[in-house]
C-alpha cells in the first residue's frame, strides 16, 4: 500500500502543514484516499485535519472543509490553524455553496473573526494573511455586489490601511496590494 509506505517520509509534510499534492501527485482521488489511509497515524495531529480541510476546500466541499478545520482548531488553537480556518470560511463565503447573501455574510464574518484572531497573535508575522483577506473580500463583493456587501468594503479598507503600515512588506507584496486595491476600485466604479 503506497500510502502507508509513505507515512514515515511524510511525517514532516503533515506535521508542518505543507501541502502534500507534490509528494503523491495531483490526482484528487489519490490524495483523498491518502488522507483516509493515514488517518489512524495522524488523527491526533491538528495539522493533518487542517490540511485535509484545505484539500476539501480546494474541491469546493465546504461542509467537510469547515468541519475538518474546526476540528483542527479544537485540537490546537494555534494561529496557523486559525489562519486556515479563516481562509476556508472566506473562500466558502464567496462560493456557490453559500447559496444566499445571509449565509455568505455569516461565513465571511466567521472568516474575518478567525483572521482578526490571527492578527492579534503577536507570534504571527507573515503579511500573506492580508492578501487572503483582500482576495477573498474582493471575491465576496464581486459575487454579492457592492451595495449588499458595503460593510465588507469597509473591512477591505480597514485592512488595506493596516497592511500599508506593516514594515515587513517587501516591494513585491506592496505591488500586490496595489493590484488588489485596483480591483476593489474597479468594483466601486462599476457601482456608479
Structural notes for this entry:
This protein is mainly alpha-helical and 192 residues long. The chain has helices spanning 2-15, 21-24, 28-42, 46-58, 62-75, 79-93, 101-120, 128-144, 150-165, 171-191. Helix 1 (2-15) packs across helix 3 (28-42), helix 4 (46-58) packs parallel to helix 6 (79-93) and helix 7 packs antiparallel against helix 8. It is globular and about 50 Å long. It starts with a helix and ends with a helix. Residues 1-5 and 12-18 have low confidence and may be disordered.
Keywords, please?
192 residues, mainly alpha, 10 helices, 0% strand, disordered N terminus
Q: How would you summarize what this structure contains?
A:
78% of the residues lie in helices and 0% in strands. With 192 residues, the protein is mainly α. Mean pLDDT is 82; it is low at 1-5 and 12-18.
Please outline the helices and strands:
Blueprint: H1 2-15, H2 21-24, H3 28-42, H4 46-58, H5 62-75, H6 79-93, H7 101-120, H8 128-144, H9 150-165, H10 171-191
SSE topology string: HHHHHHHHHH
The parts where pLDDT drops under 50 for at least 5 residues are: 1-5, 12-18
Q: What's the rounded overall pLDDT mean?
A: 82
Structural class estimated from helices and strands: mainly alpha
Helix content: over 70%
Beta-strand content estimate: under 5%
Counted beta strands? 0
Question: What is the number of helices?
Answer: 10
Distance between the termini: 59 Å
Q: Largest sheet, described in full? A: none
Radius of gyration: 18 Å
**Overall form:** globular
